[in-house]
Amino acid sequence: MTALTMGSAAAVPLATGSSAGTSAGTTITNTAAAGFDDPSGGATPSTVTSNTVVSKVTAIAGFDILYGDGSTDDVASSNAPTNYNKTNVVPDDTVYSTYRVVNNGNIENYVVNLTVTGSLPTTQVKYYLDADRNGTPDDINSPITSVTLPNGGYVDIVQVVNVPTTLGRGTVVYEGPLGYAPGGTINGVSYNTYNESSNENTPGTPASNGDLQPTSISIYAPTAVVGPNSYPDGNGTGTYTDPNTSSTNIVRQGDTQTATVQPGTSTAAFIDTIKNTGAISDSFVLSTSAYTNMTSVVFKTPSGAAITSTPVVENGITYVTDSNGNPVVKNIPAGGTANYQAIGTYDARYSTTSFTVAIESTSDSDSVTEDTTGHVILVPHTLFGDQTNNGPDATLNPNPNVNPGSTATLLMQVKNTGGSSDTYSFTSTQVAFQVVDASGNITTQNVPVTYAADTNCNGTTDVGETLPLTLVSNATGCVIATATVPANALKGQTPPLTQTMSSTGNITALDTNDTVNVTLTFTTTPSNKGVLVAKFTSKAGVSAGSETESNTGLTNPANYTLSQTTALPGGNISYRIVAKNVYNTSVAKFFLQDSVPADTTLQSYALAQNNVLVAPADTIFSVNNGTTWTSVLNGASVNPSSAAGTTYLVAVDTDHNNVPDALGPNQTLQLDFVVKVN
After folding, report:
1. Residue 162: which residues within 8 A CB-CB, separation 6 or more?
2. CA-CA distance, 128 to 141, in Å (whole number)?
3. What is the dihedral of CA 451, 453, 455, 457, to 10 degrees?
4. Which of 140, 356, 496, 602 has its CA 20 to 30 A from that of 217?
5. What is the DSSP string of 9-62?
6. Confidence bin at 632 (pLDDT 50/70/90)
7. Half-sphere exposure of residue 592: CA atoms within 13 angstroms, side-chain side
8. What is the pTM of this model?
9. Any bridge partners for residue 56, and if so which?
């Protein structure tokens, strides 16, 4: 924004220059003469002239730069006179100040060079001739760096300051002309250099402030407020009707407006009022922030016209977009007000939506907002969510802990925030449980959600409570959502389910974040462990499943027995250790271990997972109680010690990180451990 800031006309008569006398270098000649009667008797008197005496006028240097309104100069920067104390200057403004340069010597065509003294870069300040003393340059395209003065004469100039756009609000800078006259010779008479601080405005008193004449420039600090319709100070009360939808009532409370819309609508139009509390006419950029459940916010003029790059004027205020497409309310006078419409499009799935509007002055260099005002839209469909003492809360997730085979229950709550009775029905996506079969295969089982009425919200369905649920205006009721957890469900939290409430008034509300947490369980056995382990000895002819280990319930593999067997010296004994994970979750770092019995020597060992042989490349072992693990293929010896008493830990390591893999739920791991009788 560019403006012109000028000084006023002269307040007192201006000096025109105080000539020190006849121009320097002027030649003064003088010849004397004597007259007498010719003694020879002639009738004509005789005259005799003397020689000619020649003198030249000495040069006296002296100039002064004066305020163009006659104000006293030689003042400190902070004491600039009224017409030169420029306040409320906007960045990118142009500030004009008038000055007069006078010749107080006797040098004709006296040259005074002009420079600037002050806070800004010298490129921001220029000087121009102002012969007509109208406060503006005679020729804006012809800046000057010096003036030429007649003896006892003057030249009027104007200082032009281009205020940088980067100066912050409240910043004060000082700029003024500084004169310097070089020495020289005129008509054979020399004179010395002279600068402005040599002046004695009061005879005998040297200049105390460099005989300067500063212009003080104070950057404007804009102030403004914005608030609800007709209450820009944020002290709103009362109500008004949405200018575009007569069925929407808007309540003003403090610095917030709340619109209660009806079903089937998608927008609410608020009227905001800006008040320019600053000292000058100002313009303000409109923006939005703090969206909650909003789709968009657009701004229009008070009459509802679109704000575009083509200016629209209403009530003396201009509405237009800036170069970035932002809406601007322009030229609000100091102390004046202006209205605009803020039209919010909301997400009708939510009962409460909101947005904030901010105003930012264009008369400063920062992006700090001057004020904000709030807007809330209450969608008078129903509030729906998890049951609390304070009403439905769709952000809450109770995440109930439920054992496999039990029923998961979610207590849901409904509040009719509409103006009349409404009737509600409920549906839900299915609950996706991870389940495991007897062989350890993991799949997803989707379980439907069912609903039962709980009109009085006591947690049970009482006599006479049925669905669909009918509630009068502002009433609250509840429903009970249940899902049966599969008996083979894995431990862990389910993905969120989406519960939908629909009304006969075409209102829909969602709760999208509820989950069910399946707790850790395992099959009860006499050993009361989540991992079952049994050991068998090889014996030909024994049928699989013909024997049951009493402590775990595990049955024998084919050709293995729980009974006593025999072995000859030099013969082998084959042991099979069988482990099963009966937790409903994986067991990390799983391994099996066995020790070489007394009077035997280890021959071999091998793993099988879910009855599938584990490759040696995927097998690791440890003989130091798991302190270190070694790959079977990379070990110096598969059996680093075959001696009796050596304990082997053997595990699966399919990712080859030398850490035992996890064993999944309902999965088995078996270790075949073969020793020879000494």
Report:
1. 92, 94, 124, 125, 126
2. 9
3. -60
4. 140
5. S-SSPPP-----SSPTT-EEEEEEEEEE--TT--SSPEEEEEEEEEEEPPP---
6. confident
7. 27
8. 0.55
9. 27
